[in-house]
């Protein structure tokens, strides 16, 4: 007989794992299906540098994850935004908004290890590792029936299916949910970089025609580099030796940090945004990159996905207390309503910033420069941008605001 679970999470990456932890002690029967075997980390936990907004730090502290990080984090005390070839720049200081930091920079691999350590301590969580979702069988008794392949069971029944399986979501496809896709024509090169000046809490975003060049303050006295290149040039840039690559980044970024001295192994990621036409289906909900993946300019992707997951966790915990149906339409519609403003504003901000900042031409340059000057001069505009950078858009989960889960 096929087992039935209240909630089955498909995907054990950043968002799916965080949701599983948030549902601890909820009283719900929760299972998580993870493609990666027990002997390996999900591919997402690599050398990328994750910029956690203050709201994300609050929530991950409440989940008991931040405390398990082994490597030091890098505090973002200020944000410096400029564009090559344009006049004007914006400098946001956390202290001007009553904060010590807007957020923290964490290495994805270290975060993955902290998540895994915390997951191992979650009592009652049923993990099916080395197991892939392959499709849905016909529904049974008001439950979704999941077909699986790999090391776990061949089928699970779920009152609620949570798709946390990334931008190429198989669950989303099986549900028949359409997507819109925008290819920015950019590839982002990610690496650890050492400069003459060590980090001082400043996160730099230097914008250009081919995408951003960002330098984020890591906790190990190095910088986390994100360097955007035109997709047509990506293969040639990947082939550069370290000296040639550093010269290219130096030219794009400038000399604010003195000479760029060394760079570690490089990884490349195409900048493609994927947006689901809907985030709900009967007894199913999309969260994280399965619902939306966005351009990394502004560093909003994981922060947005975590808020998806924690909003869902809040609703599920309340539902369990009341003896309700975790996959019922009322809960799903409540989730969509609560996420609507944050999702819409964050997606529009990210897409608009990516398009505007990479658009060449004198007219666009003048418009950008005027915007940067206005933003630098008007505290009200700065406050709105700062609030978004800290993860406070719309109806965010209580854990993000207060660090409390319940």
From TrEMBL:
Residue ranges of domain FAD-binding in the record: 6-345
Pathway: Cofactor biosynthesis; ubiquinone biosynthesis
InterPro entries assigned to the protein according to its UniProt record, in alphabetical order: FAD-bd (IPR002938), FAD/NAD-bd_sf (IPR036188), UbiH/COQ6 (IPR010971), UbiH/COQ6_monooxygenase (IPR051205)
UniProt superkingdom: Bacteria
Gene Ontology MF: a single term: oxidoreductase activity
Presence of the UniProt keyword Protein biosynthesis in the record: no
Transmembrane segments: none
Position of the signal peptide: none
Pfam families: FAD_binding_3
Essential cofactor(s): FAD
EC nos: 1.14.13.-
Record key words, sorted: FAD, Flavoprotein, Monooxygenase, Oxidoreductase
Family from the record: Belongs to the UbiH/COQ6 family.
NCBIfam families linked: PRK05732.1, Ubi-OHases
Record's protein name: 2-octaprenyl-6-methoxyphenyl hydroxylase
